[in-house]
Design brief:
The protein is an all-alpha fold. It has helices at residues 28-37, 42-58, 64-69, 71-88, 98-119, 126-152, 166-190. Helix 1 (28-37) runs antiparallel to helix 6.
Length: 191
């Protein structure tokens, strides 16, 4: 307030700081598209991005790179962090997040075992199909986990990150080429 009665009113025109959510949000459709088109490699980016956001939002001393490269070992911890954040706000998720983390870990381990068998031509083509089935289970488990993270980031449907961008399309190209190669190999072996 000023003592000058004739001075124009002063307004605070500074924009309030927009706080980045503690977790990476992504819609189910975009998640599935990137996960399956990349044969699951999107999971490494997904994990890194979540830990990077968490580190920035909380100041936690974590290594997003290490945790991103080893999602098998750190998905439980990520979901527990989201659950803690929800509890701090007096909210909760419909089921314990570790259920989906456990399914992800189990599907990953089973996928590695089936892949080893398939590479040794043991049980082929059933082991090949088993690998693909475990990829589907992994995708479903991590997508369900993503729903918890979206909820904790106040974007339950992941609407803020629902569209594919240029970088997403560029990342899809190698995955689609690998899928085409896999299908061509199976087609060539069957003829």
């Amino acid at each position: 307030m000023t003592d000058n009665l004739y001075a124009p009113p002063q307004a605070d025109l500074r924009m309030p700081a927009v706080r980045e959510p503690a977790f990476y949000t992504v819609s189910d459709g975009k998640f599935f598209t990137l996960f399956f088109a990349s044969l699951g490699l999107y999971l490494l980016y997904w994990s890194w991005k979540n830990w990077r956001r968490y580190q920035r939002a909380t100041g936690a001393r974590v290594s997003p790179l290490v945790r991103g490269l080893l999602p098998l070992f750190f998905t439980h911890a990520l979901l527990f962090r989201a659950e803690e954040l929800l509890h701090e706000r007096g909210m909760h998720w419909t089921e314990p997040p570790e259920v989906w983390a456990n399914r992800f870990v189990l599907a990953t381990v089973m996928g590695v075992i089936l892949n080893g068998l398939a590479r040794s031509d043991i049980g082929s083509p059933l082991t090949d199909l088993g690998c693909l089935a475990m990829l589907v289970v992994q995708g479903l488990a991590v997508c369900k986990s993503q729903q918890v993270l979206n909820f904790a980031a106040d974007d339950p449907l992941g609407e803020s990150n629902a569209r594919l961008g240029l970088m997403d399309y560029l990342c899809l190209v190698p995955g689609v080429l690998v899928w085409v190669f896999i299908l061509l190999v199976y087609w060539a072996e069957s003829t």
